[in-house]
Amino acid sequence: MNTNYWCVFGISNISSVQRTVFFSIWSNKHPNSKIPVLSWEEGIGFNFYRSNIVNLYRHSIATCHHLLIKDCFCRTSFVNTQLYSVRNSIVLVVDRAILPDETFWSALSVSISDNAPNSTGRIARLNSCEINQDGEFVLYWMTASRRYHHNSALEHSITLATELEKPLLVVEPVSIRHTWSSDRILTFFAQGIIDNNAIFASNRITYVPWVETHKQTGNGLLKKLSKRSCAVVIDDFPTYLPRDVMRQASKFCKVRLDAVDSNGILPIGWADRAFPSAYSFRKHMQRNLMSALATLPAFDPMENIQTDLRLSNSYLENLFSKAGSPITPYEWLWRIAQGGDIGKEACAPLDIDHDVLPVNSKRGGRFEAIARLERFLKKGLDRYDTGRNNPDDSASSGLSPWLHFGHISSVEVVKAVLDRSGWNPNKISIEDTGRGTRSGWWGVPEAHESFLDQIITWRELGFNFAHIREDHASIESIPDWAKTSLDLHSSDPREEYTFEQIENAETGDEIWNAAQRQLVRSGHIDNYLRMLWGKRILEWAPNPKKAAEWMININDRWALDGRDPNSYTGIFWVLGRHDRAWGPERPIFGKVRYMSSQNTRKKLHLERYLARWAEDAPIPK
Fold it and tell me: What is the pLDDT, as a whole number, of residue 55?
């Protein structure tokens, strides 16, 4: 490229299919000439669709033929169009640093505090109250993203605290009053708390884990602490208890209350409808991925913060004492986290479900999540497309419990996969962007593409649906064709079992019984068998509505990753959500996709699986 040629262009309307590009090219042949400041009046406007981007740059700007729009990574505001300048293939962002000298991921780690909330789509105001300038601290009530790393809510809290020159108090509340509270869930929480306590302690932020009791509720403590705060930040999580806490807080908080979304790659607030299928959500993802990457939180939110944001221990003790809710003893939390007899004794006084025992083979917390992620990258990722449904030697990541509890972010998982793939934005298929293409769009190996589709498309489809649809955990949420078809066959003869027989794995189906025992003993069912598990309950329950209730009750009670948008996606997929009508029409199922244990036995090698989860088999360690 001739060093005398410059191209300056801007991008707007980036959240939609149609783009508008303005550009000008100047010749700088004379030493005394200067590059003029671009104004939109000087530019030439082009309206075009994504599929024409390549042609625009290869033909309209011949000197930049190798430079595609996807190479130009920058934070993008939906309100103000960003300006770029190009010279000798070096991308310069007006008033910003030179991007090619930085790695792609270091650019992503820039704090979202650089952007206004409405440009990230991750921050929502839950009330009309203002910041209390006389407050004593900023409060982050950490209900879902229970971690330090890659946490948009924590990052936003830090931004508020530094701007207000106030300390930051992070409280991780644990409820024992919700429907499915058990030794299993509390132990996993406690193990995450042990890790978080160590991580926060080394990063100049006050972190207080707090477990409610029969006398002291979480909402009561939040209300009291909020009265002494400047502002409150809470996790924006679209289902179950975190959603309920968020809504209650919006009623009683008398200071500014911000809910922040750290759920996935795409902000849930960017979609104004519930997508009916993975295909339709995939198109949304492809159109918005590059913009979404610019909203991701930093790995270390305190990396560029010099201020010590901690509160003193004496102040903390006094604060919680006056609130009537003493700080939960760390020694007791440590005992719960040990599991076994020590943990059982520590849990015994609590009014929770003691029959749902901790899973010794699955320890909660960041450190275990990272260890499992590393094993997956080495042993599972490269064969994920062919091995994820193999129960004898599964290639799945197994990270769903840690993702559900917020102990690791899907951002970190996706970043690790893309790093291993050697990915950069140049590899995206621009021609296929927005078409919903499942294979080949990312430009990485097929196994990696398959995993990315699961952790982004399918996982975040569930969050989208739960965010938009209040009835996401109800059979009313399935499509009309499925309702009609299931209703027509609701009186079909069927082999019926009671709820107790099903929960206790007392059916005549060996494969199903093994899957149910796996759920009860390990808090998890392997991928393919989880689908079969639901389909068989549909066959055995008195009617489809009762089948949905039974699946939710069993899964929410026993699954470590239950009570989650992803769980409800799986359960209602069984009944036709995010799927299409199938033929031939069958008894009970109607047009809903059919699965059987007989076909599953032919499809999978199940000998070791059935032995491992036999009725008299020892619990795996």
Answer: 28
Q: If pLDDT is split at 50, 70 and 90, which confidence band does 621 have? A: low
> Which pLDDT does position 608 carry in this prediction?
94
The pLDDT, as a whole number, for residue 611 is 96
Residues 6+ apart with CB under 8 A from 177: 212, 217
User: What's the CA gap between 387 and 379, in Å, rounded?
Assistant: 11
Digit-coded pLDDT (tens) for 297-340: 999 999 989 999 999 999 999 999 999 999 999 999 999 999 99
Report the candidate in 19, 55, 59, 51 with the shortest Cα–Cα distance to residue 431: 51
Calpha distance 79→12 (Å, rounded): 8
Task: Determine how many CB atoms are found less than 10 A away from the CB of residue 321.
Answer: 11
DSSP E strands in 107-176: the ranges are: 123-125, 137-141, 168-174
Q: What does the H/E/C string look like for 446-495?
A: HHHHHHHHHHHHHHHHHHHHHHHCCCCCCHHHCCHHHHHHHHHCCCCCCC
Strands 256-260 and 229-235: parallel
Dist CA 412 CA 423 (whole Å): 15
Return the structure tokens found at 313. 């221990």
Number of H helices, E strands in the chain: 25, 11
Q: What is the pTM of this model?
A: 0.84
Burial of 3 (0-12, 13-18, 19+ CB in 10 A): exposed
Q: What integer pLDDT is reported at residue 81 of this predicted model?
A: 34
Beta strands across the sheet bearing 90-93: 44-49, 18-27, 5-12, 82-87, 90-93
How are strands ordered across the β-sheet holding 206-211? 123-125, 256-260, 229-235, 137-141, 168-174, 206-211
The CB density around residue 173, as the number of other CB atoms within 10 Å, is: 22
With 0-12 / 13-18 / 19 or more C-beta atoms within 10 angstroms meaning exposed / middle / buried, residue 474 is middle
CA distance 257 to 95: 32
CB burial class (10 A; 0-12, 13-18, 19+) of residue 341? exposed
Q: How far is CA 138 from CA 68, 311, 358, in A?
A: 43, 11, 34
What's the token pair of residue 306? 């010099």
Decide if 521 contacts 613 (C-beta within 8 A).
Answer: yes
Q: Which residue has the tokens 């890790």?
A: 195
The phi, psi pair for 528, rounded to 5°, reads -65, -40
Q: How far apart are CA 385 and CA 395, in angstroms?
A: 8
Chain-centre distance for alpha carbon 463: 7
What is the token pair recorded at 214?
A: 């029969």
Q: Give the Cα separation of 93 and 137 in Å (integer).
A: 36
Q: What percent of the chain has pLDDT over 90?
A: 75
| CA pair distance 378, 266, nearest whole angstrom | 27
- Collect all residues with Cβ–Cβ distance below 8 Å to 312 and sequence separation of at least 6: none
Q: What does the angle CA 221 – CA 224 – CA 229 come to, to the nearest 5 degrees? A: 115
| CA gap 429, 407 in Å, rounded | 33
Say if residues 17 and 436 touch (Cβ distance below 8 Å): no
240-245-246-248 Cα dihedral, nearest 10 degrees: 120
Structure confidence at residue 121 (pLDDT): 85
Neighbours of 580 (CB within 10 A): 14
